[in-house]
Amino acid sequence: KHNSIYLDTQLRIMISAVIIEDEPIFQEILKKAISHIGLDIRVDGICNSKREAKILLPTLNPQLVFLDVELVDGKGIDLLDELKEIDFEIIFTTSHDKCAISAIKNNAADYLLKPIKEKELKKAIEKVSKRLEEKETLKLTAQLQDYLDKISKAQGDKLHKKLTASGGPRP
User: Residues with Cβ < 8 Å from 93, sequence gap 6 or more?
Assistant: First the structure.
């Protein structure tokens, strides 16, 4: 038996998602497909316009947004330019493949063409899950490093006080 510390790097994340889609039938199809693929994801909100999305996204703070390219009040890609902060992964959903380059420039996790196939949807969500796990691991690593730096500084300060109180190091 070994006395060692084991850090589980497999973080299980329940992904919170928002669907931004202007066609009710596609909203429902996507929501059902998400529930059928068997991954840890929940749909916290659905809206059908840029205007609604600007209110919903900061309120729900999702980790993933399914974003239709064409919305009733403009382009989904324009929504990204109009938001103050984008702290979520994006999967574009569209009937058009003409916006793929813009999607790539917006660091989209994936670009799914309608009708969306469950296999492609599952693969895209798995990609998002991996990205989110990597983000969380980096965040935890930074927190751990900060904590270790504080301990090291505290130990150094303690040693300095001892040395000062005893008249310094002796040869």
Answer: 21, 26, 30, 66, 67, 68, 69, 112, 114, 116
Can you give the C-alpha Rg of the chain in angstroms? 23
Consecutive H or E run containing 15: strand 15-20
Q: Which of 9-13, 62-66, 105-109, 112-116 has the lowest mean pLDDT?
A: 9-13
Query: Residue 27's closest CA among 56, 48, 54?
Result: 48
The amino acid at residue 131 is: R
Per residue in 46-77, pLDDT (tens digit) is 999 999 999 999 999 999 999 999 999 999 98
Length of the chain: 171
Regarding pTM above 0.70, the answer is: yes
